[in-house]
Structure formats: structure tokens, C-alpha cells
Amino acid sequence: MSRPVLPSAEGATPALAQWFAAKAAHPDALVFFRMGDFFELFFDDAVRAGDALGLAVSHRGEHQGRPVPMAGVPVHALENYLARLIRAGFRVALCDQRETPEQAKARRAPTIRREVVRLVTPGTLTEDALLDGARPAWLLALAQGEGEWGAAWIDLSTGAFATETLPEAEIASLLARIDPAEILLPPALLAQPALAPWRDRLVERDAPRDPARRLAEFYGVAGLDGFGRFTAAELAACGLALDYVRATQGEAAPRL
User: Which residues form the DNA mismatch repair protein MutS-like N-terminal domain (predicted)?
Assistant: First the structure.
């Protein structure tokens, strides 16, 4: 399904320009944009969230001579709406206010500074209200090496982190055993037959160039000798998983 075409950001108000920047950085997510006591959604995000949540879609001002579709949810009820969207298969980028109106006024800014502070996805949940109590929300990363696959899986709510090297023939059984909420893998692996039943959980991501360094940096160590031996495929999967954790959790990187 093709992605709806957004208008350009040209002529946007300062606040709407921030929304356009957040949407450009996270085109596949619904952008929840903090406006005072509400998180608001604009353009097609408002329509899609409105359909999924039963929200009324109205308009907030104009952009390039046309009304801007808008829907909103109260900040105090955010978790309830997030849970419903995640269960429906959406990803959500939370764009929050990073200063008070007084601070913005003091620096003579045209609007409050806002930034995406977290990307909420099925495999990166930490709040009890969002989690399914019946099973972990495993985030699984897969990578391919010389005649073998590497797997790394993380549960951010508990900090569990495991890795494994296995032959391609065992990928299907690994998936059945873990039942991951989200599966990260490089583009070259998307067509693998074992992954066909899991299409709706696949997330295409490029593996980092130096996964061993990424793993060492995450744990604040000079080298990985104290962690045991990793195959190249395992390291690639670890790097893929940790990169995604950093990208989605922002400043709230968990302890694993």
C-alpha cells in the first residue's frame, strides 16, 4: 500500500514545521505531537488514528490554503490510546515539549521546542499498561553469516537479552519458540521462506558497520572478552537490535 503524499513544509507555522520534521524522520509512524494538555495528530495521521480509535477528526488552521486535518488525545489518557494502536499494528512517534512556554519566550523563540523522545513499537514496550501479560514482547534481530544465522532477542520490560547462532533450518523453530512481537532484519533477508508467516512483524533495518564496537559501547567496556565468544552473525544481530533500541528509546536507554 502506497504512503499518502503529504504537502511540503513550505509556509508552515513554526509549530507545524516541527511536526513536518518529526514526520520526515519517522514516515512510517503516527506522530503524536504535544500541544499543551493534548497529543495531536495531523493530516493522514489524524485520519488513520481517528479510524482506529474512533476519534473525531476536525481541523487546526490552514496550510498552503487548505484546512489541516487534526485529531487529538489527552496527555493523561495517552497509555490507553497507545495500547490500542500498538495492538492494531501501528508504530507511534512521541514528539514532546522540551521546554516551558516561559523558557521559549525567554529565548525569543517562535514556539516551544519539541522533539521525538521515543518511538513506541510492538517490540519496544516497557509499560505494564501496554504489555500483554500472557507473553513477553520480544524484539528479535536476525542476521546472516557464512552458512549460519545470528539471532539476538531482547525484552525491554525485563532487561532480558539473549543471543544464538543457528543454521537456517532452525529459524522457523526459533520464531515459534520466541513468538517475537517485532523482527528486525537486513533487506536481503526479507524474502526468506521461513519468515513468510511473520510478514506483519518484519522491520527492515540496515545492520551497523561495526557491531562489536556498538555492543562494547552500549555496556561501557573496552572489549567483549568478558562476554564470551560471539560469531560474526551473532554480533551483527546484536548490533541491529541495540541500534533499534537506541533509535526508539531516545534518552531512556534501558539496562540490559
Answer: 13-128
The full set of domains in the chain, from first to last, is 14-120 (3.40.1170.10), 139-252 (3.30.420.110)
- Written as nine digits, the cell of 64 is 498552503
| Pick from 169, 166, 161: nearest CA to 218 | 161
Of 132 and 44, the structure prediction assigns the larger pLDDT to 44
Crossing angle of helices 43-53 and 78-87, in 10° steps, is 90
**206: closest CA among 214, 197, 198?**
214
| C-alpha–C-alpha distance, residues 184 and 143, integer Å | 9
pTM: 0.84
Share of residues in the chain with pLDDT > 90 (%) = 70
Q: State the amino acid at position 159 in one-letter form.
A: G
Residue 115, exposed/middle/buried by CB under 10 A (0-12, 13-18, 19+)? middle
- How far apart are the C-alpha atoms of 142 and 162, rounded to whole Å? 12
43 touches 33 (CB < 8 A): no
Name which residue leads in pLDDT, 2 or 51: 51
pLDDT band at 121 (very low <50, low <70, confident <90, very high): very high
DSSP 189-246: GTT-GGGGGGGGGEEE-PPPS-HHHHHHHHHT-S-SGGG----HHHHHHHHHHHHHHH
pLDDT confidence bin for 3, thresholds 50/70/90 = low
* pLDDT attached to residue 141: 96
Nearest Cα neighbor of 49 from 71, 69, 34 is: 71
Question: At 36, is the secondary structure helix, strand, or coil?
Answer: coil
How far is the C-alpha of 215 from the C-alpha of 235, rounded, in Å?
8
